[in-house]
Each structure stands twice: as structure tokens, then as C-alpha cells.
Amino acid sequence: MEVNVEPIVTNYFEPETIFWSIFAFMWVMYVWETYLSHRQIQVYKNTTEVPGPLKDVLDSETLEKARVYALDKESFGFWHDLYGQFESSVILVIGAIPYLWHVAGQVMSHFDYGSEYEITQSLVFLLLASIFSIITGMPWTVYRTFVVEQKHGFNNQTPGFFVKDQIKKFIVTQLIAMPITAAMLYIIKMGGQYFFIYTWLFTLIVSLVLITVYADYIAPLFDKYVPLPEGELRSEIEALAKSIEFPLYKLYVVEGSKRSSHSNAYFYGFYKNKRIVLFDTLLEDYTPADEKKEEETKETETKEDVEDETKEETEEASGETKEETKEEKKKKGCNNDEVLAVLAHELGHWKLNHNLKNIIIGQVNLFLCFFLFALLIEKKVLYEAFGFYDSQPVLLGLVIIFQFVFSPYNELLSFCMTVLTRRFEFQADAFAKSLHKADKLRSALVKLHKDNLGFPVADWLYSTVHYSHPPLLERLAALGKTE
Questions:
Q1: Per-residue pLDDT tens for 85-117?
Q2: Which among 121, 107, 170, 172 is positioned nearest to 141, based on CA atoms?
Q3: For this structure, is 294 an active site residue?
């Protein structure tokens, strides 16, 4: 008895089967992520006492602030993710993607351009999709910034600054993304049988260029970068860099405090042109130049405006408040030795070639993805699964294959990279420890957790899946081992 398997194979790869399989996987991942978040929320709710290893360095009041902040973020994240999941589901089910492509075509026809101008239509599609994303996402961004972050003292943006910042982000993003997208689509369409190699080389070059120019030309459009002033800290950082042969070229402070109170530090650049960037919120004694001028101006005005006893009392009260504010600011950030320990950790990533390894892994992955894309781009059934029956736009092929078809692989890769990154963090800590900075790095990590209201306890499964950096207690334990 013969069994005809051809109908089974054909049915397996029908457009409807592909679509609903991807749709189901999307919801499975959403349920999984919600379950993980629920586990972490239970940790936040049940952990009300300072963990034993932190009793000497973390007070109950700070732990409670961190706990409330974490719960607020999780609550916001739950509703934001739920909305995003339903929005994505509706977009897929009602065929909003092919509809938007059709609208882009109508815009083109209005200017007497036909369907043969596919690359131009693709750019119009991207612009419309970006505008839609901003409209639907802006209420959530505003709420997160001016409610959640504001409530816990992290937002320093005024509404005017926020609006200008969002406009600049949109314009800069479009100016960068549009020509890159157009060039990539052209290469794919004109590259012939081996277009995936040319596309990969193009994306490699673009990524290296962007890494090189971002902090010098793009980032300063949004935040002020100034050289770290001459002094003890600068001299010690230069000495640290020299001791491990790090080719330090420039040393910047980014005045991120105008945007947020969160702190960070990083380095960038290739070969002998390395730059180190410190957030002003990381430095305990740093005051932005603008704030210094404002303080001097206010002091001058105060002296000139004191005319009677009532005003003197008001100014005295104001002065006390300012002094208290300064004292509060001094409590945040790290001292010089702690900043050096943090930088020893960051420079450990360079010394151990972590960044280079990440770039190599990323590029190998991208090459393989473009190779698979080349095998799938002509499969009409994939386009039909998402409502494209009469055309197969390259841009939509990229979206369908990279975002939807590759989604299981993307989830697996993301988890593997999280595990690898966490391993790199332990290694960078060990490098700082080898430079005899374990004690200062421990105190810096605790301070940064307190300043950023990081919660010190994590559910093991949640942290395994999501934490690219090891939980605080694990890092402190590793640093506390005998050297």
C-alpha cells in the first residue's frame, strides 16, 4: 500500500499554516515572558528585608525604595507589553502590513511614481511605519518618563527638552536609516546570485562606521560631551590605561544628568583611537559647567536682592535648601578610587577581547541569516502568508523572514548571548580584581545599585533568561573570594 505524502507536505507549507504557526509562537513567547515577570514580581513583593551579605552597606529605607521602584516598573511593563502584544496581533490578523504597503503605493502614485520604483516605495513605507510607531508609542514613553521615572527621582527632563529630544531623534534616525536602507535594497536587487555576500559586507562596513562616528558626531546632538577636567581623577585614569597598554586617545564626561539620574561608563573606538566616556552622574564630585555658572549667578543675585529682614530669612531658608540639595548630590556617584575600579572592569572587556568576540559572533550570525534569507526570498508562500499575493517587495521579505520566520532562532540566540555576556561580566570583574581593585569595585557596585535603585534580589529563572549582568549578590560573592 502506497502512501502519498505530497499533500501532507503541501498542506504543511500552506500560507495559513505558516501564518498561524508564527502567530502562535508569538503568543507562546508572550505567555512565557509574562510567567517570568510574575516570578520576579513575587520576589519583589516577598523580599522586605535586606539580604544578609548587604546588611552592612544597604539600609532598609533604600531597599524599600528600590522595591517600590521595581514594582512600578513591572506594573508599567505588564500593561505596555500587553498592549504591544494585542497591537501586533491586530496588525497581523487584519493585514495592516500589506495595507500600509498599499498606502505607500498610493502616496507614490500621487507623485506620478509607479510600482517599478520599489525602493522609493519601501522608504515611504518605512516613514509611515515610523510615524505610526511614534503615535502609538508616545503615550507610553511620556508615562514612563514623566510618571514612573519622575516619581522615583530619575527624570530630569522638562517637557520642552523632551519634545525637542524626540523630534531630533526622529529626524536623525530617518536621515541615517533611509539612505542605508535604500542602499541595502539596491544591493539585494542588483547583486545577483551572491547578493547576500555583498549585503553582509555592506552592513559590516556601515556598522563599523557608525561605531566610529556615533560618539563624536551623533551622540553630541543629544547630550553635551566635555573633556574630563585636569586633576587627580584624570591623571589616575591615564595611569590605569597606560598600565594595561590601553591606547587612550580622549577622555570625556557626558552631561547625562539633564536627561536622567541613572549612571554609566563605556569606551569606544578602534585601534589607537580609544575614547572613554563617563556619565557625570557616575562622578561624586562632578558639577556640570552650566550648573556652576547658574550657582554663581544665583549667589550674586542673592547678595544684590537682600533688602529687608523678611527677604534675608527667605534667602537663608533657600540657602539651607541648596546646601541640603548639594549634600544629597554628594551622596550619589562614586569617589575616584571607585570610578577607577569601574573603569578597570570596563577596560577588562577590552583586554579580554570581549567586544571583538561580540562583533565576530554578530557578523557570523548576520552572514548566516543573509544566506538563509537568500534561500527564502523567492518563496512566494511566505509573502502570501502575510497578505502579499500580487507582489514580493524586498523590504517586506526582510521583515517577514528576519522578524517572523527567524523568531524562534532569534529567541534562542538572544538567550545564548545573554549567557555569554554574563560570563564576560564575571571575567571583567575578575580582571579588575587582578588589578587589586576588588574592594573598591564591590563598594562601587553597591553604590551604583543604591543610586539607581537596583533591587539586589532576583528570581533565578528570570535572571537566567534576562540578566546580561549577573545579579549583585553573585558579583559581590565572586569578588569576595580570596585573591
A1: 999 999 999 999 999 999 999 999 998 888 889
A2: 170
A3: no
